[in-house]
Known about the structure:
Structural class: alpha/beta
Radius of gyration: 20 Å
Order of helices and strands: EHEHEHEEHEHHEEEHHHH
Number of domains: 2
CATH topology of the largest domain: Rossmann fold
Strand content: 15-25%
Strand order of the largest sheet: 4-3-2-5-6-9-7
Shape: elongated
CATH superfamily of the largest domain: Vaccinia Virus protein VP39
CATH architecture of the largest domain: 3-Layer(aba) Sandwich
Amino acid sequence: MIIKAKKSLGQNFLIDKNILRKIIDFAKIDNNSEVLEIGPGSGNLTDFINQKKPKKIHVIEKDENLVQILKNKFKKNINIINEDILNYTGSSIGSDKLIIIGNLPYNISSQVLVKFIINKNNFKFKKLIFMFQKELADRILAKVNSSNYGRFSILANWKFDIKKVIDVNPNSFLPRPKVMSSLLIFIPKENIIKFKDVKNLEHITNIFFNQRRKKIKKPINFLFKSKLGILKKYNLDLNLRPQNLKPETYYSIVKEYENL
Length: 260
């Protein structure tokens, strides 16, 4: 059966069996694991997950046509959730043994990542294994003072230890995307800086990086008005640009902002 990908949903099905096997190897699934797959498509990766015989397999798929294909293919072996991942709370299936895997649609991949960073429902999981467009993956992994460094680096590294495991060629997908992809693994950190509201981290990094080539004087003045003791406290040089501040500096700025 030929399954046509929907451009509107950003679908690019992963068809390369070698890459599918590698993802499963990196996931380290055993019979005590629970797995949630985001955007399983026609179930190519789901097949390999199923072979590992985890305790439970959940898949979340928005496309109703694909849901029917998955039902026919896997019968009752998997729990199929016909919902948009961006609206899904996940509280009923979260656990510290849950491995979340996703060949994410390019058009929502950054939103999906932010959802798991903010995690307002305190949804528990052991690790995330996500496929991104390589350009976004490079931004997530970027270090301070590099041109790719920005809000995604700061947000993601606040919450996770992150590792890139492989780059994936466009030929591994159908339809074939125009760009390379990268597979990243995210392990939640045991100790993270606590904020009153993690959305403040998103808010402040947005303010700084909306004009990433400008000096930090403008966002600092905007956020703190006349209360500029923060400059002395953190030895901030107003001639620096947003990409010159370490993630830890941004976390401190958020704490100061929340204490105003």
